[in-house]
Amino acid sequence: LLIALGILLSSAMRLDPGEKNSFIQGVSMINVGNFGLPLIHLTLGQEAVPLSIVYFVIFNIPLCTLAIYMSSDQTRLREIMLDVVRIPIFHAFLLALVFSWLDISVPGGIQQGLQLISAGAIPLLIFILGLQLAAISLSSLQDRLLRFVAIVSAASAVRLVVSPLAAVCILYFFPISQLEMSVAVLQTSAPAAILPLMYAIKFNKSPELLAAIILFTTVLSGITLPVIIQYL
Questions:
Q1: Rounded to 5, what percent of the chain is helix, strand, coil?
Q2: Most buried among 9, 28, 120, 223, using CB within 10 Å?
Q3: Distance (Å, rounded) from C-alpha 209 to C-alpha 157?
Q4: How many Cα neighbours within 13 Å face the side chain of 181?
Q5: Which residues pair with 30 in a beta bridge?
Q6: What angle do CA 95, 98, 101 make, to 5 degrees?
Q7: How confident is the model at residue 139 (pLDDT cuts 50, 70, 90)?
Q8: Are residues 136 and 211 in contact, defined by beta-carbon separation less than 8 angstroms?
Q9: What is the pLDDT of residues 175-203, one digit of tens each?
Q10: How far apart are CA 96 and CA 102, in angstroms?
Q11: Residue 174 burial by Cβ neighbours in a 10 Å radius (0-12, 13-18, 19+)
Q12: What DSSP line would sit under 51-64, residue for residue?
């Protein structure tokens, strides 16, 4: 639904291909991991963590596949799919699923090495986000400043307001508990995910715009999330 809405709005605003990709990624790819998981643990308690992990795993499927597909600068389906399988995170995701399904334990030494690498992943992503934001300047935007602000504002509104409202409307028709409802709404109310920024950089799809959307949705979520949590 969010991808479809992103496509419609980006077409209505007549965005160029790079801006369109960043807009769609900003409104549809959600930071359900390093933002959503701690948030749910803090607000709903340990009981809600297993449910939030289910959402985290499911949302990572399009994040590791569809997000790359949309970001690819190729035109033929075969080349686009090759871009998807060339990204290491796709193989890591499949390998993790296999290890989980087969209940395979990772040797201690390898596990410690993976934990060390994973501990540095989020700071590295934030550092790259900062580099992209540093590349944005008022002088570089000039005549398109209002356009830039409008795109970021529209993406932030969809990500932080339309998304949770849509989730509530959809979940109303499902026989789920209040806890399940709260986890689902909170996870779909989180800011834009950082990982698609790596794809935007690799395929040169307006990474500065996506970085701005990530920053503003993260900052503005400090206003929207308390309201949503109070409602829940």
A1: 80, 0, 20
A2: 28
A3: 15
A4: 17
A5: 192
A6: 150
A7: low
A8: yes
A9: 988 899 999 999 999 999 988 988 888 88
A10: 10
A11: exposed
A12: HHHHHHHHHHHHHH
Q: Which two tokens mark 67? A: 């997000």
pTM: 0.85
What is the C-alpha separation between 132 and 139, in angstroms, rounded? Answer: 15
Supply angle C-alpha 220, 159, 178, rounded to 5: 95
Residue 99 token pair: 């290890």
> What's the sign of the alpha-carbon dihedral 88, 93, 98, 104?
positive
Cα separations (Å) of 7 from 17, 19, 71, 209, 225? 11, 11, 13, 16, 25
Give 77-124 pLDDT, tens digit per residue: 888 888 888 888 778 878 888 888 888 887 878 878 878 877 777 777
d(CA 129, CA 42): 25
Nearest to 154 by CA among 38, 34, 4, 9: 9
Three-state DSSP at 192 gives: strand
The 10 Å CB-count burial string (b at 16+, else e) for 128-160 is bbeebeeeeeeeeeeeeeeebeebbebbbbbbb
